[in-house]
Give the backbone structure.
Amino acid sequence: MPTVEEFGDILDLPLEGKIPYKHTTQNTSVSTLAGILKIHPVELEGKMITKGTVKGIPQGFLEGHLRQLVDKDMGETFMDVLALILYGIMIFPSIDNFVDLSAINVCITYKINAENPVTTILANVYGNLNMRYEFKKKKLSCCLPVLYKWFTSHISPNYKPAAKGAQEWACCFAKLHNGMIKREVSWQQRSHIIHCGEYPNVPLIGTKYCVNYNPILAQRQFGYPIRGAPNPESLVVVWNCYEEGTSNDLLRRIRSAWGSVVRAEKDSRPWVVKEKTSYQQWVMDKVKVVKLPFKPVAFMPEQQDVESEEVKTLKEEIEKMKQKNVKLVNDL
């Protein structure tokens, strides 16, 4: 399960001590954007177009402006324009070859107010995955390079997915077993966001959605066992797709919740899990409801008992320590 800390590490944008992007219904003004891009406001206004219901700037115009900045040796402005293109095309993609206002808002807000975009990037990933599931759409429209980096970082080096198409990816996921999965990664932080304010989980504000994720389901990533099935009260759903209308009340509540963030190495709240109910059984029951988009691959019995890379490494370290202890005792 992708977490804020993991995405922050991948993007080198740690969130702790920073302000997350708050989202506003008021777009960046043309005059503000023109001042940053060093373009006359009238010219910039003339280049902004609307595709469908989405307003923004064509990628081609911004790239042409980049070439002009190179000739003028305007390095800082060049980096601002390049960042705007990357935000619109790679980090917050919407329409091909087009940088929409929502991406512009996040980019400019980060530059002016230092509001960290990590929570927004993660929100768009979760929201997009949810939309693809709910409406059976095939194309993902989120920051795929970061999602790919996260996924491959949790796969054993001995198993490198070479998947390309949708069916190949489905088979790749279906064949995963415990021996292939790295629960913890070397660069992972020890302290994690457990919940925010009134929410029992982590609510997120994106450019298109409000959504949440549940750290209680990621305890094994944090290095701790899952003691039982999660309590439904700990899995409160946060969902708002802006295309269906923005909930200002929900945005206000999430902003307020981020003013009271609880971080810890593990979730010590006793009520968040039901220890008498098996987590594995909960997962299997959930699969029956959600259903998989492909036929599950039957696991071989020996696969279920394969040790993870972390367990193997830990056993090797323990064995080395035992040998050192024996040597020290003999030397004494």
User: Anything to note?
Assistant: Confidence is low (pLDDT under 50) at residues 297-307.
